[in-house]
């Protein structure tokens, strides 16, 4: 399965009708054997929940608050670079912090498949030396295992810490944002993937260039053309105005009311962010909100002694031939399992379809029934099907 079809095919699905139904109480009853499965499954592992998973579960209403953050640039249109030497993205940036998400594939197959390199560079367009320091660094070796790259990329990003090294770029010169990309040889159909937060002190211009492994990137940048947009694949490209959300809800999850779900990255309840594409000045849409970070806080309570199991699943597996798998990574607050980064699934590469689900966390009830808070950090996973449904299932803890 190629991310090309996962995203381009899903863009229309995201916009399809989205039912919001309230099920009768009996339909939300969780059989004892299912509750037992949830209590004995390891965190991040696949658990089969027959009769539980569907898109018509009652929804949690939520609001998104736009947080301040870096200038956000994504290079994913064209996703597949079909020309041996070309520029896939070119965007101007101001001094300050920048987030860059590179998601491009060597798609050259005419007249023959070739090996290339795909490199993101920054040019110092200021009058003084530019200093660049990495705040978050997530870089994966090129591969055709798009699912693995997507969930590992998020895991590495969440775990990254600011670097102390400061690199200097003379006025008018360029530098590879990720030095490893200059060394990688990218075979046909391999994905180049990186998610970076960094800070600069001069104005600059960011470009993503594909060229032959032996060609200096500066040479290719000077003579290559910027590829047109929009192609047959990719979530989008450009400079986008939103990159960090705080997500809150006025609803308090109540174990006595049965199963509920929170649906992320569906393009409806959670609309796609907008921006501008630098080479044309046209409005750009980031279909999928890839690279956007969601900091989520939810309240819940239990007056019946039940805990709350959080699972996710691949809800659109039957809607499109390219939605056969889903993989993700999140940071989840403490419950039965410790707080931290969890790859989903952790016991295999992907989850496929219902009745498969992935156990994210189990939250025990408070002794006195008081309201508790769940925290998690989510970002739409590259290469995987969207939306992401997060299902909250009441469970007996004894």
Structure in a nutshell:
The chain is mainly beta and 398 residues long. The protein has helices at residues 3-15, 32-40, 146-159, 179-183, 217-223; strands at residues 46-48, 63-66, 71-76, 80-81, 86-93, 96-106, 117-124, 130-143, 166-169, 174-176, 191-200, 204-211, 236-240, 244-254, 260-264, 273-276, 283-286, 293-301, 306-312, 328-332, 340-344, 356-363, 372-378, 388-396. The strands form four sheets. Strands 3, 4, 6, 8, 9, 11, 13, 16 and 17 form a nine-stranded mixed sheet that branches. A six-stranded mixed sheet has the order 2-14-18-23-20-21. A five-stranded antiparallel sheet has the order 1-22-19-24-15.
Structural commentary:
- With 398 residues, the protein is mainly beta.
- It is built from five helices and 24 strands.
- It has helices at residues 3-15, 32-40, 146-159, 179-183, 217-223, and strands at 46-48, 63-66, 71-76, 80-81, 86-93, 96-106, 117-124, 130-143, 166-169, 174-176, 191-200, 204-211, 236-240, 244-254, 260-264, 273-276, 283-286, 293-301, 306-312, 328-332, 340-344, 356-363, 372-378, 388-396.
- The strands form four sheets. Strands 3, 4, 6, 8, 9, 11, 13, 16 and 17 form a nine-stranded mixed β-sheet that branches. A six-stranded mixed β-sheet has the order 2-14-18-23-20-21. A five-stranded antiparallel β-sheet has the order 1-22-19-24-15.
- Strand 16 (273-276) and strand 17 form a beta hairpin.
- The two termini are 42 Å apart.
């Amino acid at each position: 399965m190629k991310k090309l079809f996962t995203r381009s095919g899903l863009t229309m699905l995201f916009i399809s009708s989205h039912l919001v139904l309230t099920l009768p109480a009996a339909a939300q009853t969780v059989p004892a054997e299912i509750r037992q499965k949830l209590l004995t499954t390891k965190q991040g592992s696949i658990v089969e929940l027959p009769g539980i998973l569907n898109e018509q579960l009652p929804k949690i209403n939520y609001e998104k608050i736009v947080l301040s953050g870096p200038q956000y640039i994504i290079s994913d249109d064209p996703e597949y670079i079909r020309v041996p030497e070309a520029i896939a993205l070119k965007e101007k940036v101001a001094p300050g912090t920048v987030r860059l998400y590179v998601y491009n594939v060597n798609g050259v197959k005419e007249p023959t498949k070739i090996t290339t390199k795909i490199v993101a560079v920054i040019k110092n367009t200021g009058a003084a030396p530019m200093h660049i320091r990495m705040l978050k660094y997530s870089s994966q070796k090129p591969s055709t295992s798009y699912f693995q790259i997507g969930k590992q990329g998020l895991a590495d990003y969440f775990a990254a810490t600011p670097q102390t090294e400061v690199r200097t770029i003379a006025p008018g010169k360029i530098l590879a944002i990720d030095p490893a990309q200059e060394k990688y040889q990218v075979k046909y159909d391999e994905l180049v993937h990186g998610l970076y937060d960094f800070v600069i002190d001069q104005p600059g211009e960011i470009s993503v260039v594909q060229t032959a492994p032996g060609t200096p990137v500066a040479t290719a940048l000077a003579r290559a053309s910027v590829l047109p947009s929009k192609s047959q694949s990719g979530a989008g490209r450009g400079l986008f105005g939103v990159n960090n959300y705080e997500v809150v809800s006025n609803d308090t999850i109540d174990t006595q009311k049965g199963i509920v779900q929170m649906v992320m990255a569906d393009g409806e309840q959670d609309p796609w962010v907008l921006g501008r594409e630098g080479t044309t000045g046209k409005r750009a849409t980031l279909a999928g909100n890839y690279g956007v970070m969601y900091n989520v806080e939810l309240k819940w309570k239990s007056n019946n002694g039940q805990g709350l199991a959080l699972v996710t699943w691949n809800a659109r597996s039957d809607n499109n031939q390219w939605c056969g798998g889903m993989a993700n990574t999140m940071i989840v607050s403490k419950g039965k399992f410790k707080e931290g980064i969890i790859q989903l699934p952790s016991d295999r590469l992907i989850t496929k379809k219902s009745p498969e689900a992935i156990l994210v966390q189990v939250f025990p009830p408070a002794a006195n029934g008081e309201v508790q808070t769940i925290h998690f950090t989510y970002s739409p996973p590259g290469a995987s099907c969207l939306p992401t449904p997060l299902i909250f299932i009441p469970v007996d803890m004894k």
